[in-house]
Prior knowledge:
Low-confidence stretches: none
CATH architecture: 2-Layer Sandwich
CATH class: Alpha Beta
Radius of gyration: 13 Å
Number of strands: 2
Amino acid sequence: RLPNVCCVYDVTGLVDAIVIAKFKSREELSKFTKRLLALPYVERTNTHVVLTTVKEDFRLI
């Protein structure tokens, strides 16, 4: 289980999946990333940190 994960998207393009997760600290993010990389089916990660949230609404249409 990955409790910080909000969303997982199966996508086309250069990557296979996009994971949206939230953390209270960089230390939590670091631990999460290392945990992902330890999974046998994860070859690499590419992390982006949100600086400012312009809009966030996860309600379904």
